[in-house]
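Lab meeting, item 3. Inverse folding demo.
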């Protein structure tokens, strides 16, 4: 996919003056399609990695990790006003690599689906229910109809138009797999234009 994308780019650059407007549009579609397929393949490879990697449980500082991830995500659109908060002294017993993958996907989703908010809010926290620690990521973004709350964790599931919100429909499936590997679970609650809360446990 990278080769296909690269060669089409070379053709455009080297033979630009010989390609008409329609031809240039075709090349753009080739690049767009190959780039999308490349992201799909990378997502599937990540899923395989999650499924096969040996679990190494340790105490992970979620406060520090989440701020590191959020800092990287926000560099893409530094002009956005997004308030990120995380409960202090928040930690989790999990595999660092796998929980990082899950957290990156969850925070990226929250970032993406709050993009139309003048000032968006994303919060990472936890609470105890019947002796079980439940972690939460809340956002005040576009949300979705709650009847689809289980469906969103499947492969290639998209509830919004690709032209409105980019993505390949794998992120939440990766999150579910990470939680499965930890003996935990993940679920969500949402409402249209009222935001989304994702809950997860590890063991």
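The presenter then showed the designed sequence:
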């Amino acid at each position: 996919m990278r080769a296909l994308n690269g060669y089409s780019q070379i053709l455009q650059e080297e033979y630009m003056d010989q390609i008409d407007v329609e031809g240039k549009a075709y090349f753009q579609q080739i690049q767009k399609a190959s780039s999308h397929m490349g992201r799909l393949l990378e997502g599937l490879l990540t899923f395989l990695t999650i499924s096969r990697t040996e679990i190494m449980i340790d105490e992970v500082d979620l406060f520090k990790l989440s701020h590191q991830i959020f800092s990287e995500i926000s560099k893409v659109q530094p002009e956005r006003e997004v308030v990120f908060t995380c409960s202090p002294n928040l930690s989790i017993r999990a595999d660092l690599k796998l929980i990082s993958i899950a957290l990156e996907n969850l925070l990226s989703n929250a970032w993406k689906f709050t993009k139309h908010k003048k000032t968006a809010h994303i919060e990472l926290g936890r609470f105890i229910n019947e002796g079980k620690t439940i972690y939460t990521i809340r956002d005040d973004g576009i949300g979705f109809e709650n009847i689809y709350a289980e469906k969103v964790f499947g492969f290639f599931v998209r509830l919004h138009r690709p032209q409105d919100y980019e993505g390949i429909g794998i992120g939440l499936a990766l999150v579910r797999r990470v939680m499965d590997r930890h003996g935990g679970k993940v679920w969500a609650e949402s409402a249209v234009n009222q935001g989304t809360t994702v809950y997860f446990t590890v063991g």
